[in-house]
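User: quick one, fold this
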Amino acid sequence: MRLSSVFTISGTFVAAGIVCWVAAGFAVTVIEDTSRSGVRDALDEGGLTWAEVDTDGLQVFLGGTAPTEATRFNAIQLAGTVVESARVIDQMLVEDSAILTPPRFSVEILRNDAGISLIGLIPAATDRERLMQRIYDAADGSDVADLLETADYPVAGNWNPAVEYALRALAMLPRAKVSIEAGRVEIKTMTDTPGEKLTLESDLMRRVPPEITVSLDVAAPRPVITPFTLRFLIVDGAARFDACSADTEDAKREIVAAARDAGLGRVPDCVIGLGVPTPEWGDAAAQAIRALGQLGGGSVTFADADIALIAAPGTNESRFDDIVGGLQNELPDVFALKAVLPPPEDDSAPVVPDFVATLSPEGLVQLRGKLGNPQLLGTVDSFAKARFTTDSVYTQARVVDGLPPDWPVRVLTGLEALPYLSNGAVTVTPDLVRVTGNTGRKDASAQIAGLLAGNLGEAGRFDIDVTYKEELDPIASIPEPEECIAMIQAIQSERKITFEPGSVQIEGANAAIMDDIAEILDKCGDIRIEIGGHTDSQGRETMNQDLSQKRANAVLDALRARRVLTSSYSAVGYGEAEPIADNDTEEGRELNRRIEFKLIRPEPVPERETGLESLEQDGDEEASVEDTAAEPADDPAEESAAE
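Assistant:
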């Protein structure tokens, strides 16, 4: 082949290669530009202007810094709508979150006879060593299982008050579940009796700091009522319960409805308990109450399945027979009805013998009246001294003949009812045992009715006129913290705590005022009080500050010496910084030299709501038990009592 032909053919191939290379390069450029502009437009329309787009052949590179992981993923999806997803190469970064959402700090404390278990998440700033020491102290030698985790995140300011309150409450609860969150404590526990339940709820709610909310769920087993007692009376047109027992809520509602129809004005305190003789108790009680309402007066008493219905004297005999006959036919077979129509009262009847036991408000007991034999006299005297004290019983009873055979039972039963009273009397006659007086126990009438009904039998007549008074109730009579400060203020408005000149010693003449203040604080229980010392402006400021602090400490020590529990009290010296009068006059300086008692109400720390808490807020809202702690005001007031 000639050389020219070789060059011609080679040149042709080279030219064709160059043309193909130029065409391919142009095609790639077109594809790159089209992909870049298409993806760029899609991202801009999606508001993702922070994203950077570059191409290399068929590959599309996404760069830039995404505000969040979600927006980064959104950018990849938008790019995949323009080009194939396999061609999209992710080279984007994600900004670091300026503020990480803190976790929800909470602790669950479970306590039973085996020990205490803790599980939950607490802030790293919590003094864990002190926390566990408090738990070990409360466990009192029992096992402690520590399953707490920690996280280094900021926590709301009301976390620590919630933990502190929960630890104080735990020391009072042998069996409980305590749930702690910032600003909230939930307690579930149980007591042995309803009375203990009321006492525990009162103690727990008095200790609640104002910046937290407490939810109490204190369960008490239903009391066993023996005998199962109900007593309903209509006297002079007024209806009342001396005792009301039911086995279910439905039975209680049925009994109360029947009593309202019979003229009862207020809702009775009807106890739901165990020991009912038959499930038909509610029906039978309602039927008997309605029958008494139709009679217009008298009493009906249930003692288990025995019913004693006593009409009012003067009731029409024919009407009595019709109503009692209808009741007897309606009652379930398990009940035994004994109905009595007393004869009309006879003013010429002879004087009946009686026995009277009187209890004074000071706790002194006087026994007088008639007893059947010397042995009964000794028994009654010993029984009374065992119920009260030897020195408080004074016996004036005498021995006579001709008393009924059941007289000893009636007398001893009456004495057994006397301790339910704060003051009052028990009068025993052959036909009636009458209990009258005042009490600080809400269930006194019911307890007395059950006692008399069980001991006197179905034919035994008795009358109870016992008045509950709140001031005699050891729980209800505890004054509120504000009342305590007001009482101290009243004392200090008449008398003043004074010191020897330039001294921190309380003057001896002040013993009486300190005794009176100590007596008030002893009744007030565990409340938070600040004892503030103040001086006039005479002398150096530093000396006045030191003097006021020492005088406040002296008052605190004087209260401790009088056995006042002062663990929640603090002594603060203000020196001359807070005058209440003009220091340029002797009268003003005298007013400025003072001791003040203030009720401490801690100012709540505002809680910043986190994102997680905002999402869970609706699901976590629960109604507090009967008694939740009140939310604190923006500007909590300090009650003060100045001299």
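User: anything notable?
Assistant: Residues 608-643 have pLDDT under 50 and may be disordered.
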